[in-house]
């Protein structure tokens, strides 16, 4: 008992919990982490390391894989590797921020709903259910038509679309925790809603919510890719991986590298995230929470 | 007629830990052997090993189990499947969790016979009905048509016994079959079990932590602790002259002695007064009554320093009473007074000080402690919240609290998951004490604990009362427990208060008939108690 009561105790157990989580990782988990780290690195440092920019065209159109162009060239003769690495910033970055927003908002609203009374819970649940009823692609179309397409717009749109799902899962977890005796004890002590939400309930749903975060991240990546494929996402000349697939779709018939490389990039990222999720402990709890 | 069971140097391990260590025993045909011990002593593990089964993560490491002339541990999976449910059958603790809720009872009861092909379905059904009658179930002809949720817990437990007996097994394993039941229900189930076990002359293994129950059922008792045999002997010998130290402590714990009342604090001023209290759940109707009424017209007076016990079966409204006093459920009618002032019905209306002075301790320490907070943090919160302690004084006070409930201060950094059941319950008490309350509401605090551990917690409760002068409202379904620590007993049934008995009158009658019934239903720690009960009231009412 030599540390500070509050922060000391919490940090230590949090660190220990993370170490426990990583200790459970199998080969697949580490593989997934490596792929994610690779793409995150590409998004952050990649553009600085490239010898040629993705903006420069003029080479042979749809060139095959070669020493000069590792992934060939696209429909304007631009280097595909450079395009891909520059696109990582949009795909990984936008998806990450959007997922963070969606999961964060969803969890907070869920905690509020669980910890406060019937009315707030009912109102919030119905409003968010209504949101679920709107098809996500239609909603994105509406948003883009109304406000134009920009990175901020995409983040907000993706976040709004995925809040209800995160809310539903977090709420079902939080409602169960809320009924437990330790929460009742905190209430009889006279604790406020904020304390019950953040100190009593939140630490006990973080595990499953992190797993849900991973799943949701994958959904957002796919949503952004499909929006870009429809031409509603990131606008040319910038391109995320979804746009790269769309731009180069005509070479699909001939099996060109320009369409296969971004497809593989999307697949590798989504599979990697899922591998990491599968290696997080508490999978059973998550499977109960998530559909 | 049952078979001979010989277990020789049975060893079961889970990873590094040895759960059962070289255990050897013999059960003669038609005899009942009781395995007794606290949780974690390896009694269920042993019972499962008799069927050649080890739970996930466990491994039967060595030794042999012979039933009749079959060596169980050398059988292959297919042969084991043929053995289980036919030669050896198993009755689990929670019948509610063992029945499929979407199929009728009869369908499930005849299943072992049909699966093993011992009887055609029609005959199996007739046999099931005969078994229902033998187990004194009501409406034996038609009860099988119902679904599991349509019968009571005690009936379901007997139906499971019928399922186990339908293949005429040679060995029956009963794993804590009455632990989850109320005392009055338990007696009926015990009687039914004992009758079939006697009449059919099956060899049985009865797993339990309750010596008094075992004394009625078993011919021999085997005491287990940490996977090792401590003592084995006939029931009479073991109860009369236990040789092992641990057996003696088990016996002592099973006969709870009244704890000293500590007259020092018991004054004449009333701490809590409950007047005409009614409460329930659901929306309120036009007359102000809730849709479902749980409590009706309760009057109660608790003096400072006094301990009042509230007993009743499950569903009698005793926990609801505690929730009303704690402010979790505002009563629909009636008023409460605390220390001479009116106590507001709802939590939100109560002052900080009112909240501090009434603390509640729940039954299950597993759910009463936040699994992601350290013990230190759990105890620190009420100290910070009510008294604003910080830094060194806070740390010192946590140390004192742990001392008070007799826990080493090294536990402070652990999470609740790293504590045993008894330790958790002590932390649970320490948290309530941290607020320095006048009244502690104890809701079945020892029910989830083993006999010995529970007795130690009762000692602690009595001691805290003597030293700190706190009052208790002590809720339990166990008359023994309540008698041991309380000055007065309130008997509740169907949400009404039936009687109030003072400590001096515990042994002196006559009391309310329901109190008498409860008192009679508590198994006594001697052989033949159930027989006397049978003689006194031969007509079985299910």
Describe the structure.
- The complex is a heterodimer of chains A (291) and B (542).
- Chain A is mainly alpha-helical.
- Chain A has one domain: MetI-like (MetI-like fold).
- Helix content of chain A is 74%, strand content 0%.
- In chain A, helix 3 (80-115) packs parallel to helix 6.
- The radius of gyration of chain A is 22 Å and the shape is elongated.
- Mean pLDDT of chain A is 79; it is low at 1-10 and 283-291.
- Chain B has 2 domains: 29-47 and 91-254, 3-Layer(aba) Sandwich (Rossmann fold), CATH 3.40.50.300; 270-524, Rossmann fold (3-Layer(aba) Sandwich), CATH 3.40.50.300.
- Chain B has 21 helices and 20 strands.
- In chain B, the strands form 4 sheets. A 6-stranded mixed β-sheet of chain B has the order 6-7-8-3-9-10, sandwiched between helices. Chain B has a 6-stranded mixed β-sheet with strand order 16-17-18-13-19-20, sandwiched between helices.
- Chain B is globular and about 75 Å long.
- The two termini of chain B are 28 Å apart.
- Chain A binds chain B through residues 1, 5-6, 9-10, 12-13, 180-182, 184-191, 200, 203-204, and chain B through 326-328, 347, 350, 352, 355-356, 358-360, 362, 364, 367-374, 376-377, 380-382, 385-386, 394-395, 398-399, 409, 412-413, 415, 431, 435.
First and last CA, distance of chain B: 28 Å
Q: Give the % helix of chain A.
A: over 70%
CATH H-level homologous superfamily name of the largest domain in chain B: P-loop containing nucleotide triphosphate hydrolases
Question: Rg of chain A from C-alpha positions?
Answer: 22 Å
């Amino acid at each position: 008992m030599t540390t500070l009561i509050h922060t000391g105790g919490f940090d230590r157990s949090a660190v220990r919990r993370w170490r426990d989580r990583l200790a459970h990782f199998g080969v697949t988990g580490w593989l997934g982490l490596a792929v994610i780290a690779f793409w995150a690195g590409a998004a952050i440092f990649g553009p600085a390391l490239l010898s040629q920019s993705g903006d420069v065209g003029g080479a042979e159109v749809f060139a095959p894989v070669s020493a000069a162009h590792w992934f060939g060239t696209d429909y304007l003769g631009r280097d595909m590797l450079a395009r891909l690495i520059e696109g990582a910033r949009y795909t990984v970055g936008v998806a990450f921020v959007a997922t963070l927003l969606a999961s964060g908002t969803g969890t907070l609203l869920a905690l509020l709903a669980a910890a406060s009374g019937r009315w707030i819970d009912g109102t919030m649940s119905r409003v968010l259910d209504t949101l679920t009823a709107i098809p996500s692609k239609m909603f994105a179309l509406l948003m883009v038509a109304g406000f134009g397409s920009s990175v901020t717009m995409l983040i907000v749109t993706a976040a709004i679309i995925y809040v209800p799902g995160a809310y539903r899962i977090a709420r079902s977890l939080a409602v169960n925790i809320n009924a437990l005796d330790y929460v009742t004890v905190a209430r009889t002590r006279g604790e406020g809603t904020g304390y019950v939400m953040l100190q009593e309930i939140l630490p006990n749903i973080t595990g499953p919510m992190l797993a849900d975060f991973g799943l949701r991240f994958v959904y957002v990546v796919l949503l952004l890719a499909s929006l870009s494929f429809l031409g509603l996402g990131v606008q040319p000349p910038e391109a995320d991986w979804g746009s790269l697939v769309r731009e180069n779709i005509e070479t699909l018939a001939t099996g060109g590298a320009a369409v296969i490389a971004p497809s593989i990039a999307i697949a590798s990222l989504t599979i990697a995230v899922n591998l990491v999720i599968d290696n997080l402990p508490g999978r059973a709890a998550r499977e109960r929470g998530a559909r | 007629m049952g078979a001979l069971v010989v277990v020789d140097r049975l060893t079961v391990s889970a990873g590094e830990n040895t759960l059962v260590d070289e255990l050897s025993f013999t059960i003669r045909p038609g005899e009942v052997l009781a395995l007794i011990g606290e949780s974690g002593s390896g009694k269920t593990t042993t019972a499962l090993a008799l069927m050649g089964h080890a739970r996930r993560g466990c491994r039967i490491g060595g030794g042999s189990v012979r039933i009749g002339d079959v060596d169980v541990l050398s059988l292959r999976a297919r042969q084991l499947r043929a053995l289980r449910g036919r030669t050896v059958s198993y009755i689990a603790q929670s019948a509610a969790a063992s029945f499929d809720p979407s199929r009728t009872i009869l369908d499930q009861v005849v299943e072992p016979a049909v699966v093993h092909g011992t009887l055609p379905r029609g005959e199996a059904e007739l046999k099931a009905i005969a078994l229902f009658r033998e187990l004194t179930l009501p409406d034996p002809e038609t009860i099988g048509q119902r679904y599991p949720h349509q019968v009571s817990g005690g009936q379901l437990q007997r139906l499971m016994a019928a399922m186990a007996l339908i293949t005429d097994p040679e060995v029956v394993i009963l794993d804590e079959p009455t632990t989850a039941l109320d005392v009055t229900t338990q007696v009926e189930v015990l009687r039914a079990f004992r009758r079939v076990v006697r009449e059919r002359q099956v060899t049985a293994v009865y797993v339990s932590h309750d010596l008094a129950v075992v004394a009625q059922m078993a011919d021999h008792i085997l005491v287990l602790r940490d996977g090792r045999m401590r003592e084995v002997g006939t029931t009479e010998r073991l109860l009369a002259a236990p040789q092992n130290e641990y057996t003696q402590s088990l016996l002592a714990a099973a006969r709870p002695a009244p704890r000293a009342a500590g007259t020092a604090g018991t004054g004449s001023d009333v701490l809590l007064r409950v007047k005409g209290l009614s409460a329930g759940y659901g929306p309120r109707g036009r007359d102000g009554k809730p849709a479902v009424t749980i409590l009706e017209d309760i009057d109660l007076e608790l003096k400072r320093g006094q301990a009042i016990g509230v007993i009743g079966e499950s569903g009698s409204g005793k926990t609801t009473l505690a929730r009303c006093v704690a402010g979790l459920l505002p009563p629909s009618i009636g008023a409460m007074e605390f220390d001479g002032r009116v106590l507001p019905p709802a939590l939100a209306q109560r002052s900080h000080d009112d909240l501090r002075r009434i603390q509640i301790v729940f039954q299950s320490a597993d759910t009463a402690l936040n699994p992601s907070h350290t013990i230190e943090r759990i105890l620190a919160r009420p100290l910070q919240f009510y008294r604003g302690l910080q830094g060194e004084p806070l740390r010192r006070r946590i140390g004192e609290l742990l001392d008070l409930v007799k826990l080493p201060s090294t536990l402070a950094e652990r999470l609740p998951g790293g504590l045993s059941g008894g330790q958790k319950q002590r932390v649970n008490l320490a948290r309530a004490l941290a607020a320095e309350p006048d009244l502690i509401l104890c809701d079945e605090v020892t029910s989830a604990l083993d006999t010995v551990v529970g007795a130690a917690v009762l000692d602690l409760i009595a001691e805290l009362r003597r030293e700190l002068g706190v009052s208790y409202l002590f809720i339990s379904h166990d008359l023994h427990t309540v008698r041991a620590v309380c000055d007065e007993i309130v008997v509740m049934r169907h949400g009404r208060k039936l009687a109030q008995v003072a400590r001096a009158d515990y042994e002196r009658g006559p009391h309310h008939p329901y109190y008498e019934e409860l008192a009679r239903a508590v198994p006594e720690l001697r052989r033949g108690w159930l027989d006397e009960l049978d003689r006194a009231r031969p007509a079985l009412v299910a």
